Amino acid sequence: MGEEDQRTVREGLNEENLAIFDVLVKRKAEDLDTRTRNRVKDVARELLDKVKAELAKLDHWKDKRQTQAQVQQLIYDYLYSDETGLPVDAYTDDEVQELAEVVYLHVYEKYETAANNVYAGSEGEGVPA
User: Fold this and answer.
1) Which of 16, 20, 23, 111 is the Cys-Cys partner for 117 at CB 3.0 to 4.6 Å?
2) DSSP state of 32
3) Is position 129 within any domain?
4) Is residue 124 part of a domain?
5) At residue 4, what are phi and psi to the nearest 5 degrees?
6) Would residue 126 count as lying in a domain?
7) H or E stretch including 83?
8) Cα 67–103–111 angle (5° rounding)?
9) How many other C-beta atoms are found inside a 10 Å radius of the C-beta of residue 125?
10) What is the pLDDT along the chain (129 residues), one digit of tens a residue?
11) Range of the domain at 81
């Protein structure tokens, strides 16, 4: 098992969720306590589920600026929300804005559709046992 596979198991995330988690903790990994890291893992999982559900409803989402903006806004709103988003005691408003943009760029690069993405068909579909 490779180092990245071991990290996937250790973090309890699949490859797809781990990519979002990594974006969200990139500059803060050393500063986050266990409770906050676990919250960010939940945010990464749930955000990706929301984004993929939205992409499943959109036809050729990358072709129109309006649908791109819709996905971008969904990501920002999700990360900024008091109920669903990143912990306010660990992330500033500016950090949330920046992270929303980075997550959007990741989604734009990796997802043609919810089902057609770089992770489709990989072993990262579920957390390894």
Assistant:
1) 111
2) -
3) no
4) no
5) -65, -40
6) no
7) none
8) 55
9) 11
10) 788 778 778 888 999 999 999 999 988 877 899 999 999 999 999 999 999 999 999 999 999 999 999 999 999 999 999 999 999 999 999 999 999 999 999 999 999 999 999 998 754 444 433
11) 3-115
Bridge partners of 111?
A: 117
Question: Per the structure, how many domains does the chain have?
Answer: 1
Q: How many whole angstroms separate alpha carbon 73 and alpha carbon 61?
A: 13
- Evaluate whether residue 45 is within a structural domain: yes
Token pair of 16 as six digits: 């797809």
* Helix ranges (DSSP H) in 1-129: 3-11, 15-25, 34-57, 65-80, 93-110
Count CB neighbours of 75 within 10 A: 23
User: 44: which 2 tokens?
Assistant: 């990464």
